[in-house]
Give the backbone structure.
Amino acid sequence: MTVESTFAEFVRDRGPSLFRYGYVLTGNVHDADDLVQDALIRLRGAWTRVDRQDDPTGYVRTTMARLHISAWRRRRREWLTSAVPDTAVDDTRLATVGDGGADTTIWQLLAMLPPRQRAVIVLRYYERLTDEEIAETLGVTRGTIRSQAFRALEKLRTEPGLIQLQGGRS
Amino acid sequence: MTEPILSNTLTAYAQHAGSMRPDMLAMVEQGYRRRRRRQKAGSAAAGLAVVAVIAVVAAVHPFRSTGSVPLPPAASVGVTAPSAPSSPMPTSPRPSTSAARTVLQPLKCPIVSGTPESAPEVLAQLTAASQVNEYQAAHVDPTTMDSRLHGVLPDVHVPLPMLKALAADVSSWTSTCISNDSLAYGTMQVSQAVNDQMNERFQTTLDRLQPADNIALGTAYLEYLTVHFGIVHFHNDFDLTTNIPLRDAVLAAYDVGMGAVETSGTIHIGPIGQQFVTTVVGLMKPANEVQKVWGR
């Protein structure tokens, strides 16, 4: 098995799951594609080492979480081009989620969170990591994770339907 | 800290996220190569800057004449020739690498099972094969063909440069070449499956173990791929010299298989197939003509 083929196999196997993770991190398919692509390019550079020693999925998930909150990435300037790279996608399936109920409300509120707080929420409630693991993933202390989660949940609680949200104090 | 409502929402949205862009792997490989090129260029520039700084420091350093400061060998260029400030840098190795890049070296055949035919013999067989159109040969029954051809047998020819370059890449023109997995044989690396399939399609009795038949089988398979892709994706345009997307699809399919190129109803050439296409197309260029490369 060559480096290319083992990497291609990894992308084929884990790509869809990474894309879903990128989608809940960023909130839309275009940013999710970009995030997965950027993280996979970095993984490709370290592939022989990561594939031999570590868990590539964990590596790329960590990379994606960190890239998502990276200030450098957000400040990156756009390239002006005459050709529009993105094409419209059929997003009608999303309308079927929650039917405008609590799910939709939460999703809209999540979109207003700053990237770091959103990353903490996703890692906690989607990836179901412990605060220690989140701290390690994002490279900050456990206290920071707890305060970020507290602030995020506080914002979500402003919605009357979500007043019962707990967490942040555990 | 269980918060089922958040977990449920995130999971529900993740399930409806749709799918990743299909060309993700190709984009990643492309991005990775670009990134590596940039890193190499950056480190080379940094390396030259260090050499230049050391050279300048060495040139003006008061201890230089005593020889008490050991200098790295790279700095010796600047030290021994301080009177030539117009060219303080050592000659860049770039021109030689770019010159090497224009001459592609095809892979050597992994296993040679017996005495192969000489290059002129192989060339004669390739030339003969490129002039044959298996579809219009007398022994083909038009009624067995795809109905989308409307009973007209397609005019398809594999250009000789393409055939020469392909044979160079798969076997380096070795008529007794056996592939690493012992499945493909000969100048065109034909497998038994392709041999049987082509004999059935064109009602021939070709044998892949015979050098001339091997080339005929490989060419017939290329014609078969051309007609298939031409019908399905290119409105019956079978011209391999002008229809570049068709040519690339045919070449990639010869390497990775038709199913791997034609995923979910569209042509999608993956990185491995693309690598093959790039090499063969490179070998088709006049500057890389096979005989020139090998000196045969």
Summary: Chain A touches chain B through 49 residues (CB under 8 Å).
